[in-house]
Structure formats: structure tokens, C-alpha cells
Amino acid sequence: MRELIVAGAGPVGLSAALAARSQGLPALVLEARDHRARRPGSRAIFVHRATLELLDRISPGLGGEVASRGLVWDTRRTLWAGREVYARAYRAPAAGAPFTSLPQTVVEDLLRRACEAAGVEFGWADPVREVAVAEDGVRLVTASGAAHEARHVIAADGARSVVRERLGIALAGTASATEFVVVDVADGPSPLPAERVFHYRHPAVGGRNVLLVPFRGGWRVDVQCRPGDDAQGFAASAADWLPDVLPGIRRPRPVWSSVYRFQQRVAERFTDPFHRVLLAGEAAHLLPPFGARGMNSGIADAVEAARAVRARGASPAAPGDPVAGYAVARRAAAERNVRAAGAALDHLAAPRLRQRWTQRAAATAAPLWPRAARWLDSAPYGPRLRQVRY
């Protein structure tokens, strides 16, 4: 019987396997996709400093490599109806990147390479179909009919987690009524300045809120739809409205688009009654892109899950179950992230008249009152990392 199997080869599953290897545990990763398959779109593009540090901890030099492959934007701006109300430029850090912005696929490629170098085993194109948990371990059966047994399983098989579903663990929470359209735009011959820009009531798209975030190789354009909007149609017509949103790029070229809602869901439990399966990443919680909590919190889950498995195996008779401790601590972190995401959505949607008045008053006062300007700039993303630990 193996000590550990990881379900899922996304950034969370790969991080879990790599963290296990860094502690001397062998790891097998089972993945539904073929090893040559590529995910569409940039997806999670923002990697926080804390995540870069975690990656360096489980594979020395990996965090630095991820940082070097990404982009560090040095300016943030916020506009109200086309008028700038906040701007801040940052000096280059003396040492270490404060964050990095790059497509999730690049992060996955680097993680996979590190896993292969560390001796992680892979089972590609063979998704988990059945899960049986007992007091002494877990039995997984894949689509090919292969059976795998392990003392522990880290379930990082995504939002539609088969492992979570087979365990009968529900996701509790809500999804926003508001829809968002996200579009990836390729860099033009003369790239725009690397600045994160948020528009309240952008005049070029009918007064909708728009977030522009650069990443290595392109731009993420995120538009908040209004009630009654045809979000799919709005995404399909991106080539028509992008020139007004990204005027510095001649003929902006959309390369991927999608429609999403703010998901704020957390698994009711992060482990089974025998504490043999540990849920991590989107198998455990669904969070919106604003605030960049999804992948970052998932990688934190992964590292802690591997640590808990190692601690339980090293001292099985020690008081206190590390897996149970993992489940409590990481579920609490997910709940904090959900509350932070809820605060961000409430600000963006501004469903109450008083909120809309407050935002308009802050925009009017911003040129003379820096505190109002800072609030307008920061509120769309919810509490900062230093306030909500991932």
C-alpha cells in the first residue's frame, strides 16, 4: 500500500506531490487529462509573494523561476467614469518579487517539471471513478479499471471533484447573480505600460466596471455585466468593444474568453470520518478571481496537506491527529477567504443606494482626500493578504 496518492495534476495537485517529495514521501498523481493536453486561457494569473515562498520551500529555486517567468507590474490606477481618482507607482523591490503575473499554464509546466525531477509518478488520462475509504486507507479505482491503494489521498481534482462527490461531501455557499466576462488579449507589437487598472463605470462599455490586469504575454480584461445582460453575447462580441477598453493596442486580439459568476462555496468537511482523504484547492472551496485567492489558497492547502500526511505517518501514536488539524485550519482559512470575496462582490455590485452614493462621494472627494482614493482602489479586491491569511 502506498503512503500517498494525489488526485489531480493542476497547480494544487502538483504542489501537493512536490511538497510530499520534499519531505521524503513517494507520491503518485492520477490525472484525468492526457499529459499533452493544454488548458485554455490564462486562468489564475496572479501569484502572491507568500505562494512564491512556499514554492521555494518545497523545491528550492522554483519560486524564483516562477517569478522570473512572470511580469511584475509597477503601477496601479483607478478611474471613475473615465476620470483618474487614484494612481500609485512602486519602486523595484531590492530583493525578491512581491508577486508575479503569468498564465496558469506556465506555472503548471514549471511545477510538473519540478515534480518529474523530484521523482513524482504520474498516471495520465486515467480519472478516478470510485473511492472507498476504510480505517486503514483508501482504495481508488480509475476509468481504466486499475485499482490503487494508499494510506492517504489528497483530493485536488478540481471544482467537479469526483473524490469529494464519492465521499458525499457537499459544497455549501452561493454564486452571485452578477455575471462577469473575462477576455485574454494578446500583447501587441508595442506592449502597453504594465499597469493594473480598474474602471468604475467605464464610459466605453456603457458604464460597466472593468478590470485590466497585465500578465506575461497579454492582458486580462474583466467586465462586470449588468442585470439582464447577455453575457455570452457580450463575450462573443469582444473584438467590437476591446479597442475602446485597450486603446493603446491597435486591433486587440482576443485569444480566449469566458463567463463566470462569483463562487463562494466551501466543502462542509475537508476530510472523511477516518481522516484518510484531504480535500485541497477547488475540490475544497470555490472562490472568484478578484483578490487572486483561488490558486494561491489552493497551493497553501497542498503544502499543509502534505505536511499533515507526513506528520501522521511519522508519529501515528502522537496526541492530536494532524489530518484533523489540517481540515479544521484550512476550512477556517477558506471561510475567511469566502467572507473576503463576499465583501469584494458587495462593493462591486453595490446593490444598496447608500453604497452607490458612498462610492460616488468618494470619487468626488478623491482628488482632495487620499483616504477616499485609496478606498476606491482597494475595495474591489476585498481584504489584503496581510489581513486574510491564505
Automatic annotation (TrEMBL):
- What Pfam families has UniProt attached to this entry? FAD_binding_3
| Keyword set, alphabetical order | FAD, Flavoprotein, Monooxygenase, Oxidoreductase
Under SUPFAM superfamilies, the record lists:
FAD/NAD(P)-binding domain
Q: Which one of the record's GO molecular function terms can you name?
A: FAD binding
All copies of the FAD-binding domain together span: 4-339
Keyword field contains Flavoprotein: yes
Q: Which cofactor does the UniProt annotation name?
A: FAD
Protein name listed in UniProt:
Monooxygenase FAD-binding protein
Q: Which source organism?
A: Streptantibioticus cattleyicolor (strain ATCC 35852 / DSM 46488 / JCM 4925 / NBRC 14057 / NRRL 8057) (Streptomyces cattleya)
